[in-house]
Amino acid sequence: MSQIRLIEVESYEEMSRLAAETIAAQIREKPDGVLGLATGSSPIGTYDLLADACAKGELDFSGVRTVNLDEYCGLAPDNPFGYRYFMNEHLFDRVNIDKANTFVPSGTAQDMDAEAAAYEARVDAMGGIDLQLLGIGHNGHIGFNEPAEGFAPNTHVVELAARTREANAKFFEKPEDMPRYAITMGVGTILRARRILLLGGPDKAEIMERAAHGPVHPSVPASALQLHPDVTFLLCRQPPRAK
After folding, report:
1. In Å, how far are 146, 189, 220 from 185, measured between CA atoms?
2. Which one of the listed residues 88, 139, 217, 228 is annotated catalytic?
3. Residue 166 structural domain
4. Residue tagged active-site, from 70, 71, 120, 130
5. CATH number of the domain where residue 99 is located
6. How far is Cα 188 from Cα 202, in angstroms, rounded to an integer?
7. Average pLDDT value for residue range 41-60
8. pLDDT tens across 71-109, in order?
9. 146 annotated active-site
């Protein structure tokens, strides 16, 4: 069943280069297209290269629209541990994008279920996602779609698994500051993207193999990507070089 292309490269830098080239080609092909973006350590090198290309005049973000996968519940856009802040720091503040065309789910909406429905409607109104960038959790989560009894079809609020909270707590000043809930695109939302690119480091090799070639089952949410006709996994065998 699997149609996933699993490409292994030696270094994080090579993975970042290939990912940046793929995204840059998408922007040049469709300057007003919609990019689905991810946070975490995996895409930082990719965002650095895209920002460098823009600074050199080789890439134009002025017409690009973006939608991010997820956000922690309870974190405001100016919270340095939130994903809007992350995107501003690593990409949006470094390229010539119109921030009015960049969307991240609100973590502070009064009605989070209503925010989830509105976010799903926004993605649809934009015409869908042309290229979705993903990372992957050790338990196979994509976005914050944790192992469950079924694949979530749309954007929703989720309670984060203990392993996810443990893995992400290192990004917070105190482990107890790590939120318990997040708002995330559903697996169905992700699958409606026209193309999908997933990045992972050496510690994700086993789960990427299971997702790409194992049974399609919601206990490994990323395995649903086997149902999509245009998915590439980029796996780097070495971690980033220390700066």
Report:
1. 12, 6, 16
2. 139
3. 5-201+210-236
4. 70
5. 3.40.50.1360
6. 27
7. 97
8. 999 999 999 999 999 999 999 999 999 999 999 999 999
9. yes
